[in-house]
Specification:
7 helices; 77% helix; globular; single chain; mainly alpha
Length: 130
């Protein structure tokens, strides 16, 4: 139980950091990004770069039925959105795919997680307007 609570708090902290960076167009320092990537790998079993090749459906199939699956899906979603910001502008296809898959996951969470998030809604709207 304590481990589960710690994991949820850790996921929420990472999500908040990424959402803040997305909303305010802040760059994440390389050291923080490496630490975040390490934590993401521990939580999701895949690092942020592996997320580039995954779809929202694959992630939903993998995590939705787990006890902390909705938190993991939200972490994957905001990671994809943040990665879309980091992808070079000459790779528009990958940038667009990451943004689309991230938004798809966030919309799934809004409908199926059992709780509405204003922060999540803002991130969806921001991603859809860019």
């Amino acid at each position: 139980m304590i481990k589960q609570d710690y994991l949820i708090r850790m996921i929420q902290e990472i999500i908040s950091m990424i959402v803040e960076a997305l909303l305010y167009k802040k760059r994440i320092r390389q050291k923080d990004w490496e630490e975040y990537d390490h934590l993401t790998r521990q939580v999701l079993g895949a690092d942020t770069r592996e997320l580039m090749g995954m779809s929202a459906d694959e992630l939903t199939d993998r995590y939705a039925s787990q006890p902390d699956g909705m938190n993991k899906l939200e972490l994957a979603a905001v990671s994809m959105l943040r990665l879309s910001e980091e992808v070079e502008s000459d790779n528009l296809l990958l940038k667009s795919k990451l943004r689309q898959e991230g938004v798809c996951l966030l919309k799934y969470l809004q409908q199926h997680s059992g709780n509405y998030s204003l922060q999540r809604d803002l991130v969806i709207r921001l991603a859809e307007t860019h």
